[in-house]
Amino acid sequence: MGERTHLGELELVVMLALLRLGENAYGVPISRELKQHCGREIALGSVYATLERLQEKGLVSSNLGEATAERGGRAKRYFRATTKGLREVRETRQALMKLWRGLSELEGHRA
Amino acid sequence: MKSSHPPSLATRLLEHLLPRGTSEPLAGDLLEDYSQGRSAAWYWRQVLTAVMVSLSKELRSRWATVIFGVVVSSAVPWKQIWHNSEFQSLLLWGIRLPWPMSLFYSIACLSAFETALLLVALSAYLGVTRGFNLRSFLSGLLVALPVVGLGNVGVAFLLVLHIPYFIFYYVVWRLPLFFGLVLALWVARPGAVRAEATRLPA
Question: Which is deepest, A25, B62, B113, B147, by most CB within 10 Å?
Answer without folding.
Answer: A25
